[in-house]
Design brief:
Largest sheet: 8 strands, antiparallel
CATH topology of the largest domain: Immunoglobulin-like
Shape: elongated
Structural class: alpha+beta
Oligomer: single chain
Number of helices: 3
Number of strands: 8
């Protein structure tokens, strides 16, 4: 029974990476002003290895203070199901936030408090999810990166693309690791049994 449990556990650990997939949006958010003012922000959301999003924002033309008694611009993340999460304040327009909840829209409100529980002030800017075209667009189209008008002997050269690992190679590698773990467990079990 013990060996069967170990075998099932080892197989589950070996197969799990093939089924874990990020269920959230990684991309860019262009927050446009909805009040007619010139303030605007650009945000990039990246899913990190710890399964948390790092959201980097940069804004332009933000007016401080926003009103006579309004000193804070608060950033909110909106999930696909409508749930809201306060990410934090914009400060002077260059800030990074971290969250573990997926979202598909960002908006900024003017608030009296730095930590309101819910958005209470007027919405200043709003933006929805968009894919980063440079990363997800067709390969070979768009900007080549060589628009610096450098002499040809100083122009950057293309680096060879790294070889892609096929799913068959990953399956074989995972099978090898699982096989090694199982072999180790069988040897350890035989050692324990023979010592009795």
């Amino acid at each position: 029974m013990f060996v069967a449990t170990l075998l099932i556990g080892a197989i589950a650990l070996g197969v799990a990476p093939f089924f874990s997939e990020a269920r959230a949006n990684e991309g860019e958010y262009k927050l446009r002003n909805v009040t007619g003012a010139s303030a605007r922000c650009m945000a990039y959301s990246v899913l990190m290895q710890d399964r948390r999003f790092s959201v980097l924002m940069s804004c332009r033309d933000i007016v401080y203070p926003a009103g006579t008694d309004v000193f804070n611009y608060v950033v909110w993340a909106e999930a696909p199901d409508g749930d809201l999460e306060r990410l934090g304040t914009l400060g002077f327009g260059k800030v990074e936030f971290r969250t573990n909840k997926p979202f598909n829209a960002l908006f900024v409100t003017q608030e009296k408090s730095e930590r309101p529980r819910n958005p209470g002030g007027p919405v200043q800017m709003r933006g929805s999810f968009g894919q980063i075209e440079f990363l997800y667009g067709p390969q070979g189209q768009g900007d080549t990166g060589n628009n610096l008008n450098l002499p040809t002997d100083l122009a950057p050269t293309e680096s060879p693309a790294p070889a892609k690992t096929s799913s068959i190679s990953r399956t074989i590698a995972t099978g090898g690791v699982v096989g090694f773990v199982l072999l180790f467990l069988v040897i350890a079990l035989l050692f324990v049994i023979s010592r009795k």
